[in-house]
Amino acid sequence: MRSMPRHIHAHLADVCASTRKAIAEACAPSLVDPLVGIATTRSALPIAREFTAARTPLAAREVAPLEFSIRRQDDVSLHRLIGREVHRYMAKSTFSADDERSPVGDPEPTFDLPMGRATSPGGAPLDAAGRPVAPFPDPPVLEQHGPAWVLAMCNQKGGVGKTTSTINLGAALAEWGRRVLLVDFDPQGALSVGLGVNPHDLDRTIYNVLIERDVAVDDVLLKTNTPGMDLLPSNIDLSAAEIQLVNEVAREQVLARILAPVLPDYDIVLIDCQPSLGLLTINALTAADSVIIPLECEFFALRGVALLMQTVEKVRERLNPRLEVEGILATMYDPRTLHSREVLSRVVEAFGDRVFHTVIGRTVRFPETTVVGEPITTYASSSVGARAYRELAKEVLAR
After folding, report:
1. For residue 257, is pLDDT > 70?
2. Helix axes 365-372 and 384-398, enclosed angle (nearest 10)
3. Distance of alpha carbon 237 from alpha carbon 239, whole angstroms
């Protein structure tokens, strides 16, 4: 949220302080930061609104659109009147030249909620974090394919959108004429399920390619319903590979070794990693040229990024000197919540340009695609989720 000019800060502080005083006469007082909200009960809400409208210099019709949120706290009858909409509305307001206060700055950006894209009042495009961003060019048509660029989709925290991003980014890249191989490197087999494959019905998976020397990638490879996109499936058998590879010579490089023969046939290989930093994930990072880190816009997901960065650095130093962090992808972003905006802001502050401009918003379409077993780019081609992954594909290729 933008910083508040001093004259508005002083004015709101006066308004909130006076409102709190009035409310204190109707209910038990509670100390709350006046710029965050006012502690109140449901019975005191009409008093708060009426008093705020009376104290603010804005006309009554201008005060009416302000939205107040009520939230129960700790099973008691005390609620909080959230005042951040007052801040936002005041920031959007302008004053006449003869007003004694200085004019307020530009209005806040208008967001395309699911994608997080915004435009400034002047029409300049901004991303969800408020950074200027130029439109990404359409990828050029390739005259020939290969060798593949290997990307690992990695985060040790589960439920952050790794599998969803692998499927839909791969499908979006295939739409741009790239030959894509998806590698399901998670024993849960979620990537395979998300593409309509029942992992329990498979006789051979990537596990057999890792462990049995007479099984090649081509023996396990599956064609998907998306033209130009193939799948190397997985199932629960892969969980045993982590134990069986312990005594293997160069055990961290097994995946790189088995993928090498098929790299000339593809433009991009996307590896869906398991939610851990075990031997399978180390194999994926060793085989990859770059890593994309999907990050749910939630505090607990943010905590693990530093540890993952340390792991990437160790793999780069000891096993794979070419490994780079391609970018951090914000997923499950909801610009309507303060928490999502704060987490995204902190990630951008910490990692700067490593954070993709494109963000993936929450939408019910993603769970639906898992049920039908196809990418969102075909299931709901015109949805904001599909548009977001197409934008991400262009951004990845532009980098």
Report:
1. yes
2. 90
3. 5
Is the pLDDT score of 74 beyond 50? no
Which CA distances in Å does 361 have to 358, 376, 391?
10, 13, 13
d(CA 306, CA 52): 44
Distance CA 380, CA 127 (A): 23
Predicted local confidence at residue 60, as pLDDT: 37
Quick one: tokens of 97? Answer: 């030249």
- State phi, psi for 365 to the nearest 5 degrees: -65, -30
> CB–CB of 215/206 below 8 Å?
no
pLDDT of residue 70: 34
Q: Calculate mean pLDDT across residues 250-264.
A: 95
Q: What are the domain boundaries of the chain?
A: 6-97, 149-398
Shortest CA distance to 377 belongs to which of 398, 397, 362, 393? 393
Q: Which residues of 309-325 are buried (b: 16+ CB within 10 A; e: fewer)?
A: bebbeebbeebbeebeb
Confidence of residue 188 (pLDDT cuts 50, 70, 90): very high
Instruction: Give the model's pLDDT for residue 66.
Output: 36
Q: What is the radius of gyration, based on Cα positions, of the chain?
A: 26
> At 196, is the secondary structure helix, strand, or coil?
coil
CATH architecture of the domain with range 149-398 = 3-Layer(aba) Sandwich (3.40)
> What's the CA gap between 173 and 379, in Å, rounded?
16
127 versus 100: which is more confidently predicted?
127
> In angstroms, rounded to a whole number, what is the distance separating the alpha carbons of residues 357 and 133?
7
Tell how strand 72-73 and strand 290-296 pair up: unpaired
For the stretch 32-62, pLDDT in tens is 333 333 333 344 444 444 444 444 444 333 3
Q: What is the DSSP string of 119-156?
A: E-TTS-EE-TTS-B-PPPPPPPPPSS--SPEEEEE--S
* Residue 285 parent element (H or E): helix 279-287
